[in-house]
From TrEMBL:
Name the UniProt record assigns to this protein: DNA-binding response regulator
Top-rank taxon: Bacteria
A Gene Ontology biological process term: phosphorelay signal transduction system
Protein source organism: Cellulomonas algicola
Keywords, comma-separated and alphabetical: DNA-binding, Phosphoprotein, Transcription, Transcription regulation
One protein family per Pfam: GerE
GO molecular function, one term: DNA binding
Cited Gene3D superfamilies: 3.40.50.2300
Domain HTH luxR-type: 156-221
InterPro entries: CheY-like_superfamily, NreC/VraR/RcsB-like_REC, Sig_transdc_resp-reg_C-effctor, Sig_transdc_resp-reg_receiver, Tscrpt_reg_LuxR_C, WalR-like
SUPFAM superfamilies: C-terminal effector domain of the bipartite response regulators, CheY-like
């Protein structure tokens, strides 16, 4: 019917049955979200996603048989259009960074409040990557460990040098975990203008999501230091 929002179809992949049950209850409480399948490991998750064709997949990182990263790669190889939200407790930052480089749509802590989890699923389903400040701060700690003279830092600075002054300001705000609306207020811009700048930054940095922008910003560090 006209005026009725489409239902977002979701699959949960996690080896902990309590986590799957909890996420199912949370998703079931939202009228515009539908749990269409669940799986206890990555291989089973790939099968369920292929069979049900969901809009969003909540994917754990560490699982038996096939972990979340391998499952994500397999889904991409199979041409799945499902957007993957990585579930993590941040006990393995290296795995989270790998998921980031593979183009995951976002990251959620397993103790994310229900309302925030529902909002994240909705945002990702609409094509907006999910990057929360709490996740950003921990990713920053992981990507800024290299010394200033390392090649990754030099490459990050070279990439950021391709940005205009305004695009650099927007990139740094994204790196701080700010939403488009927050960036608009801070820089006295319209939200549509911010979205345009974010799109330009993604293109110039060859990034697929906002977490990757944060990665380049924080790997570059303070060039005035």
């Amino acid at each position: 019917m006209a005026g009725v929002s489409p239902v977002v179809r979701v699959v949960v992949v996690d080896d902990d049955p309590l986590v799957r049950t909890g996420l199912g209850l949370i998703l079931g409480g939202a009228p515009d979200l539908e749990l269409v399948g669940e799986a206890a490991d990555g291989q089973q998750g790939v099968d369920v996603v292929v069979r049900t064709a969901p809009d969003v997949v909540l994917m754990d990182v560490r699982m038996p048989r096939m972990d979340g990263l391998a499952a994500h790669r397999r889904l991409r190889d199979l041409g799945s259009r499902a957007r993957v939200l990585v579930l993590t407790t941040f006990d393995a930052d290296d795995l989270v960074l790998t998921a980031l480089r593979q183009g995951a749509a976002g990251f959620l802590l397993k103790d994310t409040p229900p309302a925030d989890l529902v909002a994240a699923v909705r945002r990702v389903a609409q094509g907006e990557p999910m990057l929360s400040p709490s996740v950003t701060s921990q990713l920053i700690a992981a990507v800024t460990a290299a010394p200033a003279g390392d090649p990754p830092r030099a490459r990050a600075r070279a990439l950021l040098a391709t940005l205009t002054d305004r695009e650099r300001e927007v990139a740094e705000a994204v790196g701080a975990g700010m939403s488009n609306a927050e960036i608009a207020r801070a820089l006295h811009l319209g939200v549509a203008t911010v979205k345009t700048h974010v799109g330009n930054v993604l293109t110039k940095l060859d990034a697929t999501n906002r977490v990757q922008i944060a990665r380049w910003v924080h790997e570059a560090g303070d060039e005035r230091a």
